[in-house]
Amino acid sequence: MPRIPLEDNFTDVIGKAQRGLRLSDDELAAKAGVSPADLAAVKGGEIRELVLLAVAPSLGLERNALLALARREWYPEQPLFSRGFAMFNTAFEDMTVNSYLVWDTKTRLAAAFDTGTDTQGMLDTLAAEHLTLGYIFLTHTHPDHIADLDRLAAETKAAVWCSELEPLDRPGVKLFQENAHFHLGELSIKTLFTWGHSPGMTTFYITGLSWPLAIVGDSVFASSMGGSATHYEYQLKNNRQKILPLPADTVLACGHGPLTTLKQEKQHNPFLSRRG
Question: H helices within 165-244, ranges in order?
Fold first, then answer.
C-alpha cells in the first residue's frame, strides 16, 4: 500500500482546538499574547515558530509536538502484523478513509471494522484467505465510514453492530453497550466508548494478534484527532481516559491517515502529548 499522508496538518490541529474551545481569533490572540496579524498568518499556513509556541498552550496543545508537525519532521513508524490483519484505504470526495479486517488464523473467522467507500478489496481478502465474516463493526455512522455497508452485509450475510449511543437506521442492526466482549477464536474484542466526534464513537480494543490493536475510528489520528465543535471536552476526556491507558505498544488503526502506535502518539500528538 502507498504511504498514506497524515490526515491533518498543523493548521487543522489549531482549527480543531480553537473551534472546540469556542475561541474567536481575537480571544485566542489575546490569550496567547500574539498579534491578530501573526495569528492569521499562522492559521493561513505560515510557520512562525514563536507564534506557534505561544498559541499551542493557549489551546491546550503540546508545543513541541505542534512545532514538529508544522516542520513536517515526523511520520509514524508503521507496525507490521505477521497474521490476521488487513487495512484498506478508499477515496471519499477529497480525502481517503480507512477500514479494517481482522481474523483468527485457526478458525478463519473474521470481523470487519467500517467499510469505507469500496469493499472490493476486503471481499477479495476474505476470499483469498478463505475467511468467514461474522461481524461488521462500526466505529461510527458518518457516511464516509459506512458508504459500502449495504454491499458488504449483503454479500457476506455478516451481522452489523454499532453503538447503542448511535443506532443506525437499518434493518437488522445489532447494538452493543460499552465494555461488550466479542470473540473470534483466540482474538478478543472489547468496546470502549470514545464519543465526542460523534455520539457513539467507539474504539475496539483487540488482543490476540501480533500487537495489541485499537481500532479508533476518528477518535485519534496520527498527530491529531477527529474534530468536535460541540463535544470537544468529552472527546479529549474519553481519549485520555480510555485510549491513553492502553499498553504502550498498542497499534492505533485510525479512521483516516496512517497506522500509528500509542507510544508514538504520546510523544508526537499535540492533543495527547505531555512531554513539556
Answer: 232-238
Pull the grid cell for residue 260. Answer: 500509528
- Cβ neighbourhood burial of 42 (10 Å; 0-12, 13-18, 19+): buried
34 touches 23 (CB < 8 A): no
Report residue 193: phi and psi, to 5°.
Answer: -85, 110
**Spatial CB neighbours of 10, under 8 Å, sequence gap ≥ 6:** 47, 52, 66, 69, 70
Supply the range of the domain harboring residue 29: 10-71
On whether both 206 and 97 belong to a single domain, the answer is yes
Give 37-78 pLDDT, tens digit per residue.
Answer: 999 999 999 999 999 999 999 999 999 999 999 999 999 999
Q: What is the pTM of this model?
A: 0.97
Does 93 share its domain with 65?
no
